Amino acid sequence: MTRNTLAAALALGLAATAHADEGMWMPTQLPDLAAQMKAAGFEGDPAGLADVTAPPLSAVVRAGGGTGSFVSANGLLLTNHHVAMGVIQYNSSPEDNIIDNGFVAKGRAEERPANPDFRVVVTTAFDKVTDQVLAAAKGKTGRAYHDAIEQASKQIVAQCEADGSVRCSVANMYYGTDFYRIAQVELQDVRLVYAPPRAIGNYGDEIDNFMWPRHTGDFTLLRAYVGPDGKPAPYSENNVPYQNPAFLHLSAQGPKEGDYAMLAGYPGVTYRHRTAAEFASQIDQVLPRRVALFQQMIDTIEAATAGDAAATQRYASQLQGLKNNRKRAAGELEGLLRSDAKTLRGADEAAMLAATPRTQRRSIDALFAQIAGGASVGERDLLLQQVSGATQLLRSALLLERLRIEAAKPDAQRETGYQARDLGMIEGTLKQVQRRFDPKVEKALLAHVLGRYQQLPDAQRVAEFDAAFGRTPAELSARLDALYAATGLGDEATRLGLLDKAKAGQALGDDALLAIAGPLVAAQLRLEHEAKTREGESLRLRPAYMQALFAWRNSQGRALYPDANRTLRISYGRVESITPRDAVTWSPVTTVAGILEKNTNAYPFDAPKPLLEAIAKGDWGNTADPALGTQTVNFLTNLDTTGGNSGSPVLNAKGELIGLNFDSNWESVSASWWFDPRYKRAVHVDMRYMRWLMDKVYPAHDLLAEMGVPAQ
Amino acid sequence: MTRNTLAAALALGLAATAHADEGMWMPTQLPDLAAQMKAAGFEGDPAGLADVTAPPLSAVVRAGGGTGSFVSANGLLLTNHHVAMGVIQYNSSPEDNIIDNGFVAKGRAEERPANPDFRVVVTTAFDKVTDQVLAAAKGKTGRAYHDAIEQASKQIVAQCEADGSVRCSVANMYYGTDFYRIAQVELQDVRLVYAPPRAIGNYGDEIDNFMWPRHTGDFTLLRAYVGPDGKPAPYSENNVPYQNPAFLHLSAQGPKEGDYAMLAGYPGVTYRHRTAAEFASQIDQVLPRRVALFQQMIDTIEAATAGDAAATQRYASQLQGLKNNRKRAAGELEGLLRSDAKTLRGADEAAMLAATPRTQRRSIDALFAQIAGGASVGERDLLLQQVSGATQLLRSALLLERLRIEAAKPDAQRETGYQARDLGMIEGTLKQVQRRFDPKVEKALLAHVLGRYQQLPDAQRVAEFDAAFGRTPAELSARLDALYAATGLGDEATRLGLLDKAKAGQALGDDALLAIAGPLVAAQLRLEHEAKTREGESLRLRPAYMQALFAWRNSQGRALYPDANRTLRISYGRVESITPRDAVTWSPVTTVAGILEKNTNAYPFDAPKPLLEAIAKGDWGNTADPALGTQTVNFLTNLDTTGGNSGSPVLNAKGELIGLNFDSNWESVSASWWFDPRYKRAVHVDMRYMRWLMDKVYPAHDLLAEMGVPAQ
């Protein structure tokens, strides 16, 4: 393709110089990056950022499913509106609709307890335990290697948690190369302090999601409380505000193009250091396969529900999910093609291998063979996932059968998802069938998915699935008709009765779907074992590849960060515009003018009247941008982020808080695999917008004073 | 509205300084604008542009439905691909598909004759005849004033055309203030010389139409021929290339942001100098009414054709037209609201009136009353237009009845559209009914449109329509059912038989639809008379308003151009980027990179392989932009244009040809009423792109040499 050739040429041209702002660094790496950070404009001491348990990094915590940061000495915690949405919902009712109206606590007595399962997690220790973890695995291979590491990790966690004061985990860095023990304190009494109305906190909703320029006040303030003894405690009137050893200071200034910026948070998962073969597989096979299958499943559901209002309603949510997944996979594929990631990663790896001593190559070659083996069953695994993942009745049968098997084991030894604490979730799954099921649609979906499975080569076939569903479309169709005519699982009482039996590990009886579930679950367990064996081999072999990559990057004068794994990372870079397409440039700072432009007075562009009036009035207090002469809203940086960075604080060159991460641009959806400096941006709430809202629109002057940025 | 208030404040702030680039000037006005043009950067003598019949302006001609310009001494003529599309189609066939493949004549012998009705029109005289035209109207009012001007104009045309060498017309400037006689020579032998493939000439089609950034090579080269005596003649092998007294010279350089630019062409119609009341009516009533009615008609057709594939097919074209009209009206409304044109025009007029002597105010007040009267029947007129405009069978009946009446007059006295030369068109209209008609859809449309008519106040009612269709929805429904059950007009042979009778002025017989057509046409004629009476009053009274406006603009130090009326105009300004929305900026020059970005290999983004290969190769010859280091495609200026400016040449400060106008941006769709310098842009083909295509992609080196820009 001429297109890729040109893109490759452009990207190769950039590759030499463009890596300065790529990287989700472990804080411990920062001292080694001091020169680069200084050159980028950081005015503080990078060494001061190395300890996640000391100020200022200890101000950054996990909050709910995202990141948060303390912004006062008295436990005031800043995170995203969408991260705190559960807390807001929990406190909202038709009579007191704080989702729509927002919430401002007038004094601490008005702060409202979060849902009891909402947690703020403060890291108190972070230590390398690589030798301990790997000692037990030495000499082992495959599943045994995998299980040895799992076992060693469980032991470390148990020791760490022995005194009952902390929750612990072991994080795997660089794909099995290093392991870190993390100890954390869980704060259980969290309260809602300030939330803007939904039409500010989620202005634009799905339409604007990923779509810079954005105009959303996606922030919320919470407060953490502890017992009078300073220890974590469930909600109590007697609790006192938590005093974290560190909190962030809001800047009196705001960001402008070119300014240094950095961000701390808990990015979820990236694949940047995967092999060239994995890149090629992702681009040539995995993503096109996902796009095609999801589209076919969408078409199948739409055809099967056409003209049937009840069925249309029942499958609306699944259809929406498939469309989102399809769009996301298509966007990722488009981005990887635009960046020509396959060519670039291939060239990079080839150069690395050429520079790697022959003695190290044996493990790397073994890894490559391992990866090829896994990729060869990728299509089958995707299709078989849908058999349980995209169905209701068949999924119920498989779930009950698996639970029956797991129930025979002691709780601690059961597979995750089938332990005592998971039983409520399983019951929920069995109960929601009625609202999401229509037999003709489920049969149509299975006919499509299993019909594609039937076309796979013999080597990928699974005997139990062939036995259950036949080898031809005609057999498949007849079996599905017979199964769904005969099964009694469509009845909720029947399913819940079977749940009681399964929980007790009792035989489930002779229902048609349960009859095939027996052998199908046996097959699933066998495939699961094969996957864990591959995983073990990967854990064993990939460190050799990573060592070669360390050496190669070192020879290029570049450091290597571990791929994201939900541990605390820091990225640094700058406020930067983007040219997403020929002749189109987006400024890095948006203003309230854009709220007026987008506003239609209809959801999701239905800014509240007080906001519209305040914009019309134009009284910006002390928060207007001096150059723009108006109130800013959001801004854009080239910081390296991925899912999980929601709520990350964005700091300026002085380490002061200037922004709150909440989104990415659509062009960077492929950045989980490839960081393209032309397109990778992160989207933040300008703290000046938060301050203006709290000063002029939904006033909370006490809170501004508490954060050290009093209203004018 | 807060939104409007802010927009008004912004626009008022701009209003003081922003008029420099507004204006579609008559060439005769340019000497008076010399200082402004020089200040804008023009390096030539504005006085040299004053005479439309002398070089260089005499190089600019009307070509087909747009504008063209001569670009060589031997009749080579540049215009848009879309302006010359009829010529290209006429020469294309399935075996020799030059629409898809493009066309390059290798030498003059290969140039292909245009369709015989394609004309190139060269202006040879342009003279003020105001006194002559107005003399006869003096002392008259209303319809008599209108008819006196029409009569005087016809006499002037007849005298002017007496020797048979030229075609003449009279143009009305400043709404009846001035009149100009225009004489033109029509060149009849025009040939196709060079056309790019459709996927270059119309790259992006409707999706990109109005949507900057654009990447379209919308140009075509024709050549005009004359008889061996130098006089216009129909196609003949013996004809020789026409040697126009002037032709434009292509610049060796290209445009860049901030450069001076100017453009000459034949803009169609604008309403910039309409009264504040007309602006208010357009914004508050006319456009919202059109948007709502068209949407309701769309909904009506979609509901009536649902599930009927044949009917869906028959109404596809009408539906598309309604959707385009709705989108256009909505875009115009959005733009006028964004610019707060009502407030600004109102303030401007109020200030003008305050500065206008009381003695002049009487005519202006009479004009205002006149306008209010016309506006009061605006909704009725729109609805009644649809009765014939949006139907097939009822339209046929009305057409036949009107033709029967007109046929009784001498041909020259018949209403335009019913003269001998129009009979082919009428027959075509009657024949296409079968492909575009379904009785249930036509009844549904009429039920909606006439249902709305029935809700109008009594004062707006038309007795004949009430008699034909009843006064209640129930009566209407019953009448429509009865009419369409009884009529025989659904039969093509019947309609064509009636056409023969109508042409002969004979009675048409007793068909049910023809029975109501009699009184309905009588009503239409009466309404037509009323409209011409209002038009006459407007012609009589509006010059007083224009005089006040002249004086007011003069006091502001600003000149006044006449609203566009398809006569030759010049606008000047500069190459300029645009910020259409908060944080979004579009550069004024696009490059071939954008072609690759947009290309999907599927219509309309299916750039030809030779183009893609040439871009990948990157051999730009002597046409690359020195700063961008690549090949440019289109560019943007703030020049004042409207529909009809298609094909207008764009000149640089030296008067050299740098661009070819072909589109506007969507944000300027409201510029026919209001020029907002923040949003008004015009879109041009960069002549360097044309040269590159002719040099490297579809070579035509002889033509480049003929234009004085030889390939490298």
TrEMBL record, chains A, B:
* Gene Ontology MF terms: dipeptidyl-peptidase activity; serine-type aminopeptidase activity
A Pfam family that this protein carries is: Peptidase_S46
- Which biological process annotations from GO are given for this protein? peptide catabolic process; proteolysis
Question: Which InterPro entries did the record assign?
Answer: Pep_S46, Peptidase_S1_PA, Peptidase_S1_PA_chymotrypsin
Q: Which family does it belong to?
A: Belongs to the peptidase S46 family.
Q: What does this protein do?
A: Catalyzes the removal of dipeptides from the N-terminus of oligopeptides.
Q: What is the recorded name of this protein?
A: Dipeptidyl-peptidase
